[in-house]
């Protein structure tokens, strides 16, 4: 079972993002503060869980968390400031919107920019080690997936309901056939032969 948090004597939030490698849609981040005695046997990195497990966990996390926050940064902002900066900015937005100010921030990965007056620690593969990061990964993933399913209705030919904007063969074939949409990240390499793509 994952550890609840890194610092046991501090009010700590875990934060993570989803959608960094996608060709379309937002990058989505979440921040979660869990109760000190929170336990869950299946909570883990969202990427290794089934969809049904993620949805069950999302409901549990939202009911049991001391507080949580989710933020989307759209593809235009990703293009403007790059995906790394957009990911970090989305995490900052989440922390800012928490109803309780954390005393410490535990970040998944190895890159982060200091948040004003709150110390942080980056943890590689943190979503497989700490429950507060894993909980944030679940919320980021499920909220982003829901967003992509909504915009799938507008552009069903890209099948975002299934691929969620990731660079699958099906998604790239649709880009090749239909071009790009207002949701695509123009700064990304959408096709191997990028110069042949009409933007």
Keywords:
alpha/beta; globular; Nucleotidyltransferase, domain 5; 36% helix; 199 residues; 6 helices
CATH topology-level fold name of the domain at 12-149: Nucleotidyltransferase, domain 5
Our estimate of the beta-strand percent is: 15-25%
State the oligomer.
single chain
Number of helices: 6
**Rg measurement, Å:** 17 Å
Poorly predicted ranges (pLDDT <50, ≥5 residues)?
A: none
Morphology: globular
Task: Spell out the helices and strands N to C.
Answer: EEHEHHEEHHH
Write down the overall mean pLDDT: 95
Which architecture of the domain at 12-149 would the CATH scheme give at its second level?
Answer: 2-Layer Sandwich
Find the structural class using helix and strand composition: alpha/beta
* Fraction of residues in H or I helices: 25-40%
Quick one: CATH class of the domain at 12-149?
Answer: Alpha Beta
State the total count of DSSP E strands: 5
Going across the major beta sheet, what is the strand order?
Answer: 3-2-1-4-5
Beginning-to-end CA distance, first to last residue: 47 Å
Described by strand count, sense and barrel closure, the largest sheet is: 5 strands, mixed
The CATH superfamily name of the domain at 12-149 is: Ribonuclease H-like superfamily/Ribonuclease H
